[in-house]
Amino acid sequence: MNRWNKSFVSLVAIASSTTNASNSLITTTMPQIQSLVRNINSTTTTGSKVSADSNKTKRILDAKRIIQSSDVVCFDVDSTVIIEEGIDELADFCGKGEEVSNLTKEAMGGSMTFQEALRRRLDIIKPTQSQIRQFLVEKPSTLSPHIKDFIDYLHSLNKKIYLISGGFHSLIDPVCKELGIPLTNLFANKLLFDYNGNYAGFDINQPTSRSGGKGDAITQIRDFNNSQLISNNQQVIVMIGDGATDLEACPPANFFIGYGGNIIRESVRERAQYYVTDFTQLM
To answer: Which of 85, 186, 237, 243 could cross-link to 1 by cystine, CB 3.0-4.6 Å?
Structure first.
């Protein structure tokens, strides 16, 4: 999950279970997905749902079928595509780790909005352009195990792939390049700098700068991809991530698959219909 899912999981409300939300969207707007769900449910076996007491996975075979039947696969970044939580790493690098941690604890009490928490954290860190460049050299992101293989697999199936993150373009752009994902397929926040390269804020117009922004990003992705279709069939979109803001993006995503390969957030695992701990389980 991006860094905000780790720090501000209590700031987002999970309005309903993924099951009810997904079925509502499917029933009212996408009959072809209803058929997909029926097929998945009719082929579910005891082997597709592993006991939570054993390895925390849920309905792996069904999740694999969903991936195969999808048109678009969207990923969270921090703690999902990469191991780290980028903004926390940046705060430590800039010598502001403890101050940001203290603010995180305050924000988790519900005293501020998501965007306000983001603004206050960045006002503490105040990263300069030169610090960002140095950070990328000294602390490059670490890809999660098997994510490169999974992305290559999705590319081989001609799936459209997007990254949706509450982190920052400047930190995630190298990840896109490493995975062969176009930068135009990245939704993330943008840091602003003055002419001297000093921190000057962030772009509040980016959807991921506010609560519910990942869902807004998926709506934009759906609208764009549907506009490219000759037929009237709508795209089946899957969201994969580790945190609450990923889960709340379904709907408008048709399916959510929880990922716990780096960290398992029990509230997310319990609510998710599908949950994996290794990307090879979806191949």
So the answer is: 243
**Whole-angstrom Cα distance, residue 274 to residue 251?**
15
Cβ pair 75, 163 in contact under 8 A: yes
Helix 86-93 crosses helix 97-107 at what angle (to 10 degrees)? 140
Which distant-in-sequence residues (6+ apart) come within 8 Å of 146 by Cβ? 278, 279, 280
State how far the Cα of 221 lies from the Cα of 1, in Å rounded to an integer: 19
Our answer to whether residue 194 is catalytic in this structure is no
Q: CA–CA separation, 185 vs 162, rounded Å? A: 5
* pLDDT tens for each residue of 95-154: 888 888 777 766 655 667 778 888 888 988 999 999 999 999 999 999 999 999 999 999
Residue 79: C-alpha distances to residues 63, 133, 168 (Å)? 19, 22, 14
pTM strictly above 0.90: no
- Establish whether 78 is a catalytic residue: yes
Q: Which of 62, 78, 88, 242 is catalytic?
A: 78
Judge contact between 33 and 254, C-beta under 8 A: yes
